[in-house]
Amino acid sequence: MVEIRTGDLLLRPVDEADAARFAVLCNDIDVARNTSRIPHPYSRADADAFVAKRGAGMFGDDNEYVFAVCRDGEIIACAGAHRISPGVFEIGYWVGVDYRRRGVATRAARAVTQFAFEGLSADIATAGFFTDNPTSGRVLERVGFRRTGDIIVMHSAGRGEDVDTVRVALARKDFELSPEIVIKPAGA
Ligand SMILES: CC(C)(COP(=O)(O)OP(=O)(O)OC[C@H]1O[C@@H](n2cnc3c(N)ncnc32)[C@H](O)[C@@H]1OP(=O)(O)O)[C@@H](O)C(=O)NCCC(=O)NCCS
What we know:
Layout: E1 2-6, E2 9-13, H1 19-26, H2 29-34, H3 44-52, E3 64-71, E4 74-85, E5 88-95, H4 104-118, E6 124-130, H5 134-143, E7 146-156, E8 161-171, E9 181-185
Parallel strand pairs: 5-6
Antiparallel strand pairs: 1-2, 1-9, 2-3, 3-4, 4-5, 6-8, 7-8
Helix pairs in contact: 1-3, 4-5
This protein binds coenzyme A.
């Protein structure tokens, strides 16, 4: 289990005690509409099921690393990376409605991307954003991701429909490691 520090943000493993907070932050139509797996409305039972998936060093059974993004001890966002094929990690994130437009997503996305390269030995990081969510596209661009040219159809549980999704990618050689992002064993 690792944690990542970047400035005043701490990305730490998700804990079972986090369910109540996730139930509040995820019950947001913007989070549901712009991600693939978060339903709306989002219940406490949904949050309980989410936190219960976390395991020793990884989340779920698919090399999925999910971090609670905290500031001053409070969860304000979530970000993660999961392996979609050997050497390739997909990153994702959302930010609580009261904490947006302060650079949180950009810093959290950069942190999990660096974790994928530095901590998980990824060769390539990938991500996707729905065509009607250009804000997230700009977040990814600031981190260094570039469009692959592919637009695929992904299902959004929150919308209950398929959505055109812009695919982006970033090779390890094109990512500059930031000394401000510090990855270490959780709690050390
Ligand atoms: C998309 C999302 C993650 C962006 O999170 P965020 O923390 O607001 O992102 P950032 O603050 O890093 O960037 C957003 C904008 O705020 C601006 N910003 C950053 N710091 C700022 C500040 N201090 N003052 C004013 N604006 C600021 C950024 O420049 C950026 O502007 P742009 O849209 O013109 O590029 C967030 O809106 C969200 O969670 N949406 C729902 C879920 C989602 O879309 N997840 C991503 C799925 S791919």
